[in-house]
Structures are given as C-alpha cells and as structure tokens.
Amino acid sequence: MHVIRDVLDKQIVDRNHVKIGKVDGVVARLRQGKPPRIVAVEIGSIALARRLGRVPGRWMAILATKLGGDRHANPHRVAWSKVRTIGLEIELDIDARETAILDWQVWLRDHIVRRIPGA
C-alpha cells in the first residue's frame, strides 16, 4: 500500500457513514531494522497545519486550545486498528458522536447556520 496515495487526504466516515473529515496526518512507529508501522491517523486542523511546518502547527494548536479548551489541544488520533476499509473513503470502526471530532461542526450548526434565514 502507498500510504500517501491511498490514505492521506482521503474522506473518512464512521461506522454509521457520517463524514468526519479527511486524513490530515499519519502516525508511524519507527522500528529498528524493519519498515515503519502505521499506528494511527490524525484528523483536524492541527495535523493539517503541521504539514506546513512547526510554526503553523504550534499556532493552530494554540488557537484550537484557546477556542476549544484542552480537549482540542492535539489532533484527533484514531488507532489504525479502527480502520475497517480503504477505498474511495476510509471507513473507521468508531462512532463520531462519541468523540470530539465533530465539536466544531456542531457548534457552527447551533450558533451560526441556524441563524441564517432559510437554512
């Protein structure tokens, strides 16, 4: 499998086929004398900003912490063992409602979108 081509930036859905976001980062464990092993995927703006460098990653972490508290101080990590299928989408064996992944979307829906006439 080509991790960059097959995993990074792919749409993620939970077990109920709710769109969670895209894979913004891949976490691998280095092993001496063996190829690296993928242990998790990261979702969220912090992981995406880290792809631009250390400074943007730190800025985004600070901003996310100020806006969302310590719960959002790090990218959302999902263990690789939770990956069910990899195709057009990556299906995870999690329920997004039980995580902090959708907190921003719920906040935007409740505080912004509902106030737009006709929304």
What would you note in describing this structure?
The protein is of the alpha+beta class and 119 residues long. It has one domain (3-115): SH3 type barrels (Roll), CATH 2.30.30. The protein contains 4 helices and 7 strands. It has helices at residues 3-6, 45-50, 54-68, 103-111, and strands spanning 11-13, 19-22, 25-31, 34-43, 76-79, 83-86, 89-92. Strands 2-1-7-6 form a 4-stranded mixed β-sheet, with no helix packed on it. Strand 1 and strand 2 (19-22) form a beta hairpin. The N and C termini lie far apart (42 Å). The model has no long low-confidence stretch (mean pLDDT 91).
Q: CATH-wise, what's the superfamily?
A: PRC-barrel domain
- What's the Cα radius of gyration? 16 Å
Reported by name, the CATH topology is SH3 type barrels
Number of domains: 1
> What is the H/E order?
HEEEEHHEEEH
Kindly report the spatial arrangement of strands forming the biggest sheet.
Answer: 2-1-7-6
Structural class: alpha+beta
> How much helical structure, as a percent, in the residues?
25-40%
Mean pLDDT: 91
Biggest sheet layout: 4 strands, mixed
Name of the CATH architecture: Roll
Which percent band covers the strand fraction? 25-35%
- Alpha plus pi helix count: 4
Cα shape:
globular
Task: Give the termini separation.
Answer: 42 Å
How many strands appear in the DSSP assignment?
A: 7
Low-confidence stretches: none
CATH class: Mainly Beta
Structural descriptors:
SH3 type barrels; alpha+beta
Question: Helix and strand layout, with pairings?
Answer:
Layout: H1 3-6, E1 11-13, E2 19-22, E3 25-31, E4 34-43, H2 45-50, H3 54-68, E5 76-79, E6 83-86, E7 89-92, H4 103-111
